[in-house]
Design brief:
With 118 residues, the chain is α+β, with helices and mostly antiparallel strands. It has one domain. It is built from three helices and four strands, in the order ααββββα. It has a four-stranded antiparallel sheet, with helices on one face. β2 and β3 form a beta hairpin. The radius of gyration is 14 Å and the shape is globular.
Length: 118
């Protein structure tokens, strides 16, 4: 998929809805049962935005929209909750909700703090 600037949460979710492999994931995104966790920049990987998608029946998926700006590409990577690199979250603790901060910056900053202590 050709990369373009992502400016809003709605644009990010629209791209994820197009690329989600399961109908239940697409339905959860359409019904706004998703949480934007913010932007991440791991040192040896490309930056990405992470979204938690929650199904009606309690299933959780973690989708990362990986942005390769140099090659004008983007792709979706799926994470297990235990494998998320919380210590590389870009957001501002206590900041306003945004693409980098996510929907709940205080909760994600707590996870980053816990991951940094390991």
């Amino acid at each position: 998929m050709k990369a373009k600037p992502i400016r809003t949460r709605a644009e990010l979710l629209a791209i994820l809805a197009l690329k989600a492999p399961l109908a239940s994931q697409r339905r959860a995104i359409a019904e706004d049962r998703s949480i934007l966790l913010g932007g991440f920049t791991p040192p040896e990987e490309l930056p990405f935005y992470l979204v938690q998608i929650n199904s009606y029946h309690g299933q959780k998926w973690f989708a990362a929209l990986v942005l390769d700006e140099a090659n004008y590409r983007m792709r979706i990577r799926w994470y297990d909750e235990a494998d998320i690199p919380w210590q590389h979250w870009n957001g501002v603790p206590g900041g306003e909700p945004s693409l980098n901060n996510g929907d709940y910056p205080i909760a994600v900053s707590y996870k980053r703090m816990k991951a940094s202590k390991r």
